[in-house]
Amino acid sequence: MNRNILTRTALTIAFGLLPAAAHDFVLTSATDAGKQTTVTGLYGHPGAWNAPDLRRLIALDLHTGDKDEPLSILEKAMVPKSSALKLEAPVADLEESGYAAITAIYDNGFWVSTTGGKYYSTTKKEASGKITIKKSSRNMKLAKVLIRGEDRALGHRLEIVLRKPPSDLAAGAKVPVMVVFDGKALESAELAIVPLDGVLNHDTPGIKTDATGMAELPLGKTGTYVIRVSHDVPSKDTEMADIDSFSATLVFDVEPD
């Protein structure tokens, strides 16, 4: 993947503002002159990357061709000495044609917020009686980087699917995407798209999916983009948390003509 980095692109289209920009887990990839591909994991969000925790990365899978089962590269993941703000893993035996994507699951654990705006990394059960709880959640971060080919759903609970190959996209175009949750189209999911080195926060314009889970997102210049979406559902274990919170990201390149 060509990791051309863009300066911040202003999205001036009159859509709603993204209600929140919580931390996400994002994957990118790069291929060197020797055709060795490396996948990188970033935690946080564009404009404010933080150090990811390798212990929270519970899946890192390579999907290629028509294979039903992905290849796990989780054991290859490491924190490079050159930077504590990312994770890296080499990708072996990546063919030069056909579909290729890498996915990750990052378990961000339990969090409790208070009426005073403070956050604690603990469960509702442990915090009860000790602090005034405003919100409690279990948080899962789901990531995908599309390296090559036409995207498809790969089985994450919450997933963004690019409905047009990146090779068919151009600067200034609209990006058609579909959001699925538990294998079904997700209506009214709010998406945001920014350059990988852009800024994603509560002021970022958001675009909602329609009844079929579809939305069209605006592109600026060519380069590397990240799309993110989040979705909350009531927790099945209300003793531990009120909600299960999911966020998903999709990274892809738009190449120059």
Principal-axes shape call: globular
Helix content: under 10%
% residues in beta strands: over 45%
Order of helices and strands: EEEEEEEEEHEEEEEEEEE
Largest sheet, strands/sense/barrel:
10 strands, mixed
Number of helices: 1
Structure summary, number of beta strands: 18
Mean pLDDT: 87
Rg estimate, integer Å: 18 Å
Distance between the termini: 16 Å
Q: What structural category arises from helix and sheet content? A: mainly beta
Number of spatially distinct domains:
1
Unreliable runs = 1-20
What secondary-structure arrangement, pairings included, does this model have?
Elements: E1 16-17, E2 24-31, E3 37-45, E4 48-50, E5 57-64, E6 71-72, E7 87-91, E8 100-114, E9 119-120, H1 124-127, E10 133-148, E11 158-162, E12 174-181, E13 184-185, E14 190-195, E15 205-208, E16 214-218, E17 223-234, E18 243-254
Parallel strand pairs: 10-18
Antiparallel strand pairs: 1-15, 2-3, 3-4, 3-7, 5-6, 5-8, 8-9, 8-10, 11-12, 12-13, 12-16, 14-15, 14-17, 17-18
Structure, described:
The protein has 257 residues and is mainly beta. The chain has one domain. 2% of the residues lie in helices and 48% in strands. The chain contains one helix and 18 strands. The protein has one helix at residues 124-127; strands at residues 16-17, 24-31, 37-45, 48-50, 57-64, 71-72, 87-91, 100-114, 119-120, 133-148, 158-162, 174-181, 184-185, 190-195, 205-208, 214-218, 223-234, 243-254. Strands 1, 5, 6, 8, 9, 10, 14, 15, 17 and 18 form a ten-stranded mixed sheet that branches. Strands 2, 3, 4 and 7 form a four-stranded antiparallel sheet that branches. Strands 11, 12, 13 and 16 form a four-stranded antiparallel sheet that branches. Strand 3 (37-45) and strand 4 form a beta hairpin. The longest helix is centred in the middle third of the chain and has 4 residues, at 124-127. The chain is globular and about 60 Å long.
